[in-house]
Amino acid sequence: MPGDFLADVEWHAGTECERDSGEPFTHFVFRPHATDTNPYSMTKSCCALRPATLNDLGAINDIYNHFVHQSTCTYQEVPETPEGRQKWFTHHSARHPVIVAEVGGQIVGWGSLSSFHPRSAFRFTVENSVYVHHQHHRQGIGSAILSELVAQASVLGHHAIIAAIDGEQADSIALHAKFGFQKVAHLKQVGFKFGRWLDVVYMERLF
Length: 207
Hints:
- This protein is α+β, with helices and mostly antiparallel strands and 207 residues long.
- Helix content is 23%, strand content 32%.
- It contains 4 helices and 11 strands.
- It has helices at residues 57-70, 82-90, 141-155, 170-178; strands at residues 4-6, 9-10, 16-17, 42-43, 48-51, 98-103, 106-115, 125-132, 160-166, 182-193, 196-206.
- The strands form 2 sheets. Strands 3, 4, 5, 6, 7, 8, 9, 10 and 11 form a 9-stranded mixed beta sheet that branches. A two-stranded antiparallel sheet has the order 1-2.
- α1 crosses α2 (82-90).
């Protein structure tokens, strides 16, 4: 999502730093574990998806930090450090997975489900993040990642996924709508980046 929720947990759920017009496809669900070294949950023409490991954090961070300077899909303004990324990763588990997309053995995108709020009554709600390498847009990778995150959220027993998206990111809003998310709120001028005020659109998918 655009912005930070807790001081030590980045909050950029629902950001989809990709322009992607592909149609939804049938997914193959896997149960993710941050320590898994094996493999691929699903292989599609665009990419292969698997659970992320500690060894992937450098690539994950490189993809993300490009958009810190270049886009409003994240409201973070200072590049994430390796230490910060590792701390972020430790907040995830089998119930809050991180996945990566690979093409030819290269990580070209990643996605995650994160806790929406630390209060216990929010435990069945998550927020999603999707980032695709800026040189790999328009290849269906964002659709692949988001489809898998939705499938995993269902399997893991989550009730709601929240996507908080910058109001300028029309492609991200359309992508989430394609996967069953509905707009539930529009916050005016709550962010400020690149010298201008920014709106945030909240979208939600229920199970």
